[in-house]
Design brief:
This protein is mainly α. About 75% of the residues lie in helices and about 0% in strands.
C-alpha cells in the first residue's frame, strides 16, 4: 500500500514529468558537446517544470472538484491539494533563486517561453476573448506544449553555455525540430486520455476532431518523422551512431506504446509509461554511448 502511494505521488504529482524535462535538457547538453553539465540550469528546469504543471492543477482544482468525470489521477489531485500547494511554493522559491544564477542572456531568452508556459496553466486576458488558459484554446495546447518543451530543453542549455548566437544554425534547428516533433507525438496520447474531460469542458483537441484511432496513427507518423530527422542529423554529423540508434529505438518503443492505447487503459499507463518515454530516450542514449 505504501509503495502504491509512493508510485502515485511520483507519477501523479508531476515529479516524473519534471525529471523528464531535466533528462531531455541534459541530452541536449551532451549532444551539443558542452564541456560540463550546468547543474543550476538543470535545477531550474526541474523546479520550473514542477511549478507550471502544479499551477495547472491548482487553477483547475475547482473544475476537478465539480467534474463528474474524475479519473484516479483527478481523485489523487483533489485529495492531495495541500501537498500540491506546498511543493508549488517550494518550486517557485527555488526557480526564482536559480534565475539569479543564470546568465542574463538566458533570462532574456526565457521570457517568451516562460510567459507561454505560465499562460498554459494560469488564466490570462487574451484580446477579443474572455480570460482563458492557453490550454483551453481550440487545438492550441498541443502545439504550445511541443514548442515550449523544444525551447526549454534545447534552446536553454545552448544559450546558457554557448550563447544565443548559436541558435541560428542548422544543427540547432534540426535538434529543436526533432525534439518538438517527439513531444508533439507523445502529447497526443494525453489528449486521448483527457478526451472525456476536455469534451465536458468543450476544449477541442485532435482526438475530439479526428477520433482516437486516427490520432494514434498520426502520432506514429510523427515518431517516424522524428526518426527521419534524427537520421538527417546523423548524416550531417550532428549526432553519433549511438545517439542515432538510441533515438530510433526510443521512437519504435514509443510507437508500440501509442498503438496499445485504448479506452480501458489505466492512468498509470499514461502518467508512467507514456511520460516515461522521455526518460527511456535519455537512458538509451547513455547506455548505447557506453557500448558503441
Amino acid at each position: 500500500m505504501l509503495f502504491r502511494k509512493a508510485i502515485h505521488s511520483f507519477f501523479f504529482g508531476n515529479f516524473l514529468i519534471a525529471f523528464s524535462a531535466v533528462a531531455l535538457t541534459h541530452l541536449s547538453q551532451t549532444g551539443n558537446k558542452i564541456s560540463s553539465d550546468d547543474l543550476h540550469l538543470l535545477i531550474f528546469v526541474f523546479f520550473s517544470t514542477l511549478l507550471v504543471y502544479n499551477l495547472n492543477f491548482i487553477v483547475g482544482m475547482n473544475g476537478l472538484k465539480a467534474s463528474s468525470f474524475r479519473s484516479d489521477r483527478h481523485n489523487w489531485i483533489v485529495k492531495h491539494e495541500k501537498i500540491i500547494w506546498i511543493f508549488t511554493i517550494i518550486a517557485l522559491i527555488i526557480s526564482v533563486a536559480e534565475l539569479f544564477v543564470l546568465k542574463k542572456e538566458t533570462i532574456i531568452f526565457l521570457f517568451l517561453p516562460g510567459i507561454l508556459a505560465l499562460g498554459y496553466a494560469v488564466p490570462i486576458k487574451v484580446p477579443g476573448l474572455k480570460t482563458i488558459r492557453f490550454r483551453e484554446l481550440p487545438f492550441v495546447k498541443i502545439f504550445l506544449v511541443a514548442w515550449v518543451w523544444g525551447t526549454f530543453t534545447v534552446g536553454l542549455p545552448i544559450v546558457q553555455q554557448i550563447g544565443i548566437k548559436e541558435l541560428v544554425n542548422t544543427e540547432f534547428f534540426l535538434l529543436f525540430f526533432s525534439r518538438s516533433v517527439f513531444i508533439f507525438a507523445i502529447t497526443i496520447p494525453f489528449d486521448i486520455r483527457d478526451l472525456t474531460y476536455d469534451s465536458d469542458k468543450q476544449i477541442a483537441t485532435l482526438p475530439s476532431r479526428f477520433g482516437i484511432e486516427k490520432s494514434k496513427y498520426f502520432s506514429v507518423v510523427l515518431l517516424f518523422l522524428f526518426s527521419a530527422v534524427t537520421f538527417l542529423r546523423f548524416q550531417f554529423n550532428f549526432c553519433n551512431r549511438a545517439e542515432l540508434a538510441a533515438l530510433v529505438l526510443s521512437a519504435i518503443s514509443t510507437a508500440i506504446l501509442v498503438l496499445m492505447i485504448s479506452k480501458t487503459r489505466k492512468e498509470l499507463f499514461y502518467s508512467g509509461l507514456i511520460e516515461g518515454t522521455m526518460l527511456i530516450q535519455w537512458l538509451l542514449v547513455l547506455l548505447l554511448s557506453k557500448i558503441f
